[in-house]
């Protein structure tokens, strides 16, 4: 058996076309959405992601600004930058890229965000609304995971709601921006959700849980953590991980996921590749949330 390999680029292209129409419609109201990113230090994945969203924003005609902060930036200065972006009328959405340098607290920076521009729902108010099932924004990565799942299920002739309600959805990784919101989105759909983390691994329980998954979502940053022997036949496996493979000179030569793709593909019903799975959808979804924020700001201005 060989799995359906889910083509994230195709879904991303569809979303991009719809988004372009939304941007044009906003332009008719003299509104241009704007995205601001904040990057501190020289993390390779953070800068690679920043470059991708910069290119996409420009292609879509979305205003874009990147605040590049030095690795030794003081926390107060980083907070001031986030505050400044909150007050900038050209900026509709703000993304704070991780990792942050150790002297800058993630929580402190997230609290400094204008909640109406917090497109990744990391401000405590937005994280709370999401957990309550009343999201202001759905963070781009878990939103993309479920978009991909929904589209695949519909295209294969199934009703996603019915599938989730009789599925074990196992989420490996519980970060604030990926794992936890994915758990919430699975619960909202009525799935039986199991959350696994590094403790599940060290206690030897991880693979007991992954073998029960009908839908497996893996977001750990551990290359090849899950292989064919850790999943059941017919699993739908979504790989969020992006792990650089480096050569002896320390240069990144390619990217791999958290799944051992070549073995999981032999057992799964469907699987996402890395690259080309969740990642391309996430990029567009971030801009989609930016456009949503701009549209809301426009309607607030009209009703004021
Ligand atoms: P974090 O480092 O914030 O979280 C990793 C999570 O994985 C933690 O909850 C950790 O558990 C868990 N974990 C670590 N090791 C194991 C293990 N051996 N077994 C089980 N669980 C483990 O990472 P992120 O959530 O931000 O990102 C995860 C991956 O997804 C990365 O590769 C990242 O690059 C990628 N990513 C991809 C995106 C995309 O669009 N495709 C977007 C965002 C991230 P604990 O909490 O117990 O420490």
UniProtKB/TrEMBL annotation:
Keywords annotated in UniProt: Amino-acid biosynthesis, Histidine biosynthesis, Hydrolase, Methionine biosynthesis, Multifunctional enzyme, NADP, One-carbon metabolism, Oxidoreductase, Purine biosynthesis
A Gene Ontology BP annotation from the UniProt entry: L-histidine biosynthetic process
Pathway in which this enzyme or protein is active: One-carbon metabolism; tetrahydrofolate interconversion
CDD domains, sorted? NAD_bind_m-THF_DH_Cyclohyd
State its Enzyme Commission number(s).
1.5.1.5, 3.5.4.9
Single Gene Ontology MF annotation: methenyltetrahydrofolate cyclohydrolase activity
Signal peptide boundaries: none
Note the Gene3D superfamilies from the entry: Leucine Dehydrogenase, chain A, domain 1, NAD(P)-binding Rossmann-like Domain
The protein's annotated catalytic reaction(s) are: (6R)-5,10-methenyltetrahydrofolate + H2O = (6R)-10-formyltetrahydrofolate + H(+); (6R)-5,10-methylene-5,6,7,8-tetrahydrofolate + NADP(+) = (6R)-5,10-methenyltetrahydrofolate + NADPH
The Tetrahydrofolate dehydrogenase/cyclohydrolase NAD(P)-binding domain sits at 139-296
Positions binding NADP(+) in this chain are: 173-175, 242
Q: Which InterPro entries would you find in this protein's record?
A: Aminoacid_DH-like_N_sf, NAD(P)-bd_dom_sf, THF_DH/CycHdrlase, THF_DH/CycHdrlase_cat_dom, THF_DH/CycHdrlase_NAD-bd_dom
Domain (Tetrahydrofolate dehydrogenase/cyclohydrolase catalytic) spans 6-120
Q: Into which family does the record put it?
A: Belongs to the tetrahydrofolate dehydrogenase/cyclohydrolase family.
Explain the purpose of this protein: Catalyzes the oxidation of 5,10-methylenetetrahydrofolate to 5,10-methenyltetrahydrofolate and then the hydrolysis of 5,10-methenyltetrahydrofolate to 10-formyltetrahydrofolate.
Q: How does it assemble?
A: Homodimer.
Q: Which HAMAP family match?
A: THF_DHG_CYH
Q: What is the protein's given name?
A: Bifunctional protein FolD
- What gene is this protein a product of? folD
